[in-house]
Amino acid sequence: MLVIPDANSIISALIKKGKALELFEWNDFSKEIKFVAPENLSIEVRNNLSLIVKKTGVSETELVELLNKIESQIEFIPASKFEKFLPSAIKISPPNDFPYIALALSLQSKGKLPIILSNDKDLLKSLSDLPIRGVSIHSLLLQLKLI
Length: 147
What we know:
By secondary structure, the chain is of the alpha/beta class. Strands 3-2-1-4-5 form a 5-stranded parallel beta sheet, sandwiched between helices. Helix 8 links the parallel strand 4 and strand 5. The chain is globular, with a radius of gyration of 15 Å. It starts with a strand and ends with a helix.
């Protein structure tokens, strides 16, 4: 299974430490999901670390350690690998979500069937009109029979 997590799914794993984190912990052992993401995902999440520290009360050191563990499962793809899909992705995606859609379109052009993982209702709604599958964390956990 090829999954593109968005920043909100990673941030959710760091803040709530619930189902989102369980997914990454499960995959750390099972290796059933291949996570790929635009390289800017790491920057976006790390730019929000101080906010996450405030929301969780967890030290930045602990959060970085957890984030590193999550990121070790993700293959980060440079924008240059999917840049030709950026213009069309910008037209069809909610603001700030176009890199995920561009990466998905690029992977589809190579015969792969990626799933975008997000709890962002606007992103998931926009995907329902596209040939790109999007799932919430809860839905993916159900599909994997983890809940």
